[in-house]
Amino acid sequence: MAAIELRNVTFVYSKDTPFEKTAVSDMTFDFERGAVIGVIGHTGSGKSTVAQMLNGLLRPTDGDVFVMGKNIWDEPKKIREVRFKVGLVFQYPEYQLFEETVRADISFVRKI
Predict the structure, then answer these.
(1) Most CB atoms within 10 A, among 12, 72, 90, 98?
(2) Which residues touch 11 (CB under 8 Å, ≥6 apart)?
(3) What is the pLDDT of residue 99?
């Protein structure tokens, strides 16, 4: 069983409006536990959208996201639990939530 799976995932921003934009279209892939994966692409290619769907920050327009074999949207009220299993680190340290560096942000969790 893969640690993280996307199955036929599509995400559309501003669906059913004049500003509708498909960011991810029918994407399927698996991440095995312990794997190190790099995702690259041009600006606007959907990398951040995928990361936010894996973490439960965005819900796919279509398709399913699984973490450890469980669809993360089966129980929407428990979506916060997904964020303890799938971490998300922002690209630029200056945009971090609390600290100025990724290292300091990660260390912050241990201080609580």
Answers:
(1) 72
(2) 22, 23, 24, 46, 49, 53, 58, 60, 61
(3) 66
